[in-house]
Structures are given as structure tokens and as C-alpha cells.
Amino acid sequence: MTHVVIVGAYGSAGVAAAEGLLDAVGSEIDRLTLVDDGEPGGGLCILRGCMPSKEVLSAAEHRYRARHDHRLDGDPPEIDLDAVVRTKNEHVSNFAAHRREAVREMASRDGVEFRHETARFVGDRTLRVGEDEIEADHVVVATGSTTNVPDVSGLDSVDYLTSADVLDATDLPDSGVVMGFGYVGLELVPYLAEAGVDLTVVEHDERPLDEADPAFGDDVLSLYREEFGVEIRTETTEERVEKTHDGVRVHVDGPDGPDALDAESLFLFTGRRPALDGLGLEMAGIDPGEEGWVADTMRARGNDRVSVVGDANGKEPILHVAKEQGQVAADNILAAERGESPESYENVHHHVVFSGAAVYPYARVGHSEASAEEAGLDHVAVRREAARDGVFKTKLAPRGRATLVVGTDGTVLGYQGLHLHADVMAKTMQVVVERGMDVREVPDRAYHPTTPEILDGLLRLAAERVE
């Protein structure tokens, strides 16, 4: 009698795994138990991640556009934080209710049960769920992620605002120091700036966007400094933090030596880590601190009957990746029941950061110039600046650039964009890269109709280069 338990059933990865197994219940699987203690339930992306962040970013986008449109007369409007949070909460509540209803609907089927309780391992594949112990044949861990708090001296003695705090804030400080300039910081810093917060950002590297070719990171620095008035200290590290009478002081060390940054508040945007505390993985013979502790099959090393998917495995904390990993875990559970070999998860690199108040999002699909070079691929790279294209000028969003990486045989290998609608174009380019399309055969208008020129130009130039 085969019993599968999914821990973290409200999240995107957990739901995807459940949906992948649902039709097998009653045949290859006898029982499917969905467990989640979320209150309210809905999953990280809906409650604290991409959905609420896009809600608040839309307010920043509207204000930014108003500030930069010379055709509009008068002072730009101020962001009404109460209205922003109220609207965000209403929409998120509806999204979360829809997710809970989807889980309840699955649990209404024969052989499927939902437990609104906490689960932890007490044995190899034994889980304590509430007051009960459940013996499972397969377990899927989809518990998401939590805020990563770095080990910086004094941090535990000061108050700080995380991304979740910012999303709920109806009152913001006049000034702030930002620790963390990854995708969370890149998205929330313009929102805070448009809301009137005077910001200083601490960036450890020479530029942000580690996955991007250098020109894109340099453009982001210029954009944030010039368009949003943000001070960014590059190649700088936090040494210690202390509380002051007026707020907080962050002691840093950078190219010009030690310095102290004073502000009313500290914003902590230092990423996320897998939410595994209290799960008791050690009882299942699993060590999350071990390198490569989750294989590409999504199975945990040390216990191949436990799969870890989504943010919980720390591989690639991206929504669409979580869904795909959940489906792979489901497929491999069914493969195990059939005596078949598991499949490994492979995906085309596809990341979008809603930088620049979502007016100038950064997107990368497939290879960058650097990664193509590192992979030893024979390729050409063509580049185009957004300022050359009339559509961006008419929309008063002329900043940014795009790059297309193409194999010398014509195969499209990758696209990068930091410009208006780069997020939308990335969806089309994902299909192009996944299918291994030839640059000379990409159909006309196979992309967002309001951004044709930049892609047209790249495709033409690349086609000429590979002829």
C-alpha cells in the first residue's frame, strides 16, 4: 500500500507535486497526504513573495513614470502607503483563498487527505503530523524558504526591516541603509526611493547582478544613482552594526577605507535560506549541510525516498523552477513505483528581476556571453542599446540594453535584457532557446508587439554574423 506525504502542500512546489500525483491515486498510489501548517495558507510566493512585491512595485512604477513624463504638469503624486498595503492585502487574500480552495479540492478526492498541521521526521520515512505518526513510502519536502540573517556583529541588537516588513509598511523611515543588493534589494530599493526614503546601499561586489555580463550591472548602478537618487557603496562590506540615538549606524569597509553609515533604519534584503528548521531531516538520514545534498532527481542524498523541491533545496529559488521541480519529484515517485529509473531536472536558465521599479526589468534566458565562453561554445554576441529604438523613446523609457548570444551555426543560445518589457520578451526567448531555434528562422512578431525594434535589430545583426 503506497503512501505519499507532501510537506508544504500550499506552496507552488508542493501543489505541483500533488497535481502530478493526483491522477495516480487509486492505482499506483493508494494514499496521498497533503500537510501544511500555514495560517493563512497560500504559500510563500502568494503571501510574501512575487505576488505582493509586484503589487507594491506597481505603485513605484506609476510614480516614476509620472516624474519622468515632461508632458505632465505639476508635482508628481506621493505614494499612499495605506492604499498600497490595503490593495495588496485584498489581492493577496484573494490569491491565497484560491490556492487553499485548490488544495481542498484535491483533498476531496478519494485517497487524498489534507492535514492543517506541522510535520517533522521522527524516523527514516516516519513523520509526526500533529499527534499522529505516519509511515510513508515517499515524502516530498516543499517547505519553502525564510529570511537569511547574515552573521554581522551587532545585528542582533538592532531593529531592522525585512522584505516582508516593507510589503506591510504603512509608514516608512526618512532614511535607511540597505544590506543586500540581490534580486530582493534590486526590486524593493526603487519602491522605497519613490516612497521618499533616502537610501544608502552596501554592495559587496564591483556591481550587482552576478549572473549578468558586466555592462548590465554597470547600467543598473547608473540607473539607480541617477534616476532614483540612491547612494550605492560598491566593493564594500559591513563590519558591524550598532544602535544610535537617532537610529542605526553601519560600520563598513570599502575602497576608501573604513566608514560609518548613519540612518533612521536598517533594511535587511540579504536573501533567503531553505526553511528546514524543526523538520528533523537528520532523523531521515539527511544532512542539509552536505554539498549536493539534493540530487538533480530531486531526491535527497542519504534517503532516496525523500524528495526536496522548490526553495527548500536551495538550488534555484525561482517560482517556475519550484513548479517544475515539484512535477519532476512526482514523476520520479511514479517511476520508482514502476521500477523505472528517475529522470534528472534540467531547465533553461530563465531569470527575471523587476529592477528599476519594473520599468527597467532585467531578464536573462539561456547563456550570457560569459557563460557561453565558460562552456566552450563557439558563438557570436550582438548588442543593442535601448536608446536606439523609437518605441522606447515614445514611452519615455530609453535606458538599458540587450544582448543576443548565438552559436556560430545559428542556434540561439541566450538573451539578456535590461529595458522596458524585457520580462515579457524573456518568455518568448525561453521558447526560442528551449527549441534550439535558428536565428534566421525566428518568426516575425513572435514576441511582444510593443518591443519589436530591439529584438528585430539583434536578430538581423546576429543573422548577418553567422552567414
UniProtKB/TrEMBL annotation:
Residues 360-454 form the Pyridine nucleotide-disulphide oxidoreductase dimerisation domain. Belongs to the class-I pyridine nucleotide-disulfide oxidoreductase family. InterPro entries: FAD/NAD-bd_sf, FAD/NAD-binding_dom, FAD/NAD-linked_Rdtase_dimer_sf, Pyr_nuc-diS_OxRdtase, Pyr_nucl-diS_OxRdtase_dimer, Pyr_OxRdtase_I_AS. This is NAD(P)/FAD-dependent oxidoreductase. It holds the Pfam family Pyr_redox_dim. Keywords: Disulfide bond, FAD, Flavoprotein, NADP, Oxidoreductase, Redox-active center. Its cofactor is FAD. The keyword Flavoprotein applies. The keyword Protease does not apply. Coiled coil: none annotated. Residues 3-326 form the FAD/NAD(P)-binding domain.
